Amino acid sequence: MSAADEILDIVDENDRVVRRATRGEAYAKGLRHRCAFILARDAEDRVFVHRRTATKLVFPSHHDMFVGGVVGAGETYDDAALREAEEELGVSGLPRPVPLFSFLYEPGGGGQGWWSHVYEVRCSLPVSPQAEEIDWHAFLTEEELDRRLARSAADGGWLWTPDGLAAYERLRATRA
Questions:
Q1: Which residue from 29, 80, 106, 107 could staple onto 71, CB 3.0 to 4.6 Å apart?
Q2: d(CA 135, CA 7)
Q3: Can you give the pTM of this predicted structure?
Q4: Residue 101 CB contacts under 8 Å (≥ 6 apart), including other chains
Q5: Is 106 helix (H, G, I), strand (E, B) or coil?
């Protein structure tokens, strides 16, 4: 089964399930669905940062400081967070990610967006990221990450996923 054929819960503005659709239909029609974002830190408290592959359906070749993805139909956010973190980091036996907050991400260019639950997990295991999802990765200190975020793509900086940026800005605001 391809990623576009995966079945998702479609939700309303209050995160209540209203129907189900394939991921392909949800993306094509801008249907509101659910996602889990996981900030992975190593034993030295550095943040896992990666570049998405060019074949990703959403934000190809963008950098992100979260691993994660869509929540499958009938799946809980918590279960999706653990599944996605283990899949994308290429590890098994992670502790259950700790829930931090949730928000409705609504892209500026239209579309219905997605409900996003944000988590954090400690990964002291050696990572082997999923090659279909990630084509570059590193663990960066928060200072290194902030320096990367401060440079615009026009100034030679990285292109970041807009939903990841929105989640990271909210995370920093909750910790300020």
A1: 80
A2: 26
A3: 0.93
A4: 117, 118, 170, 171, 174
A5: coil
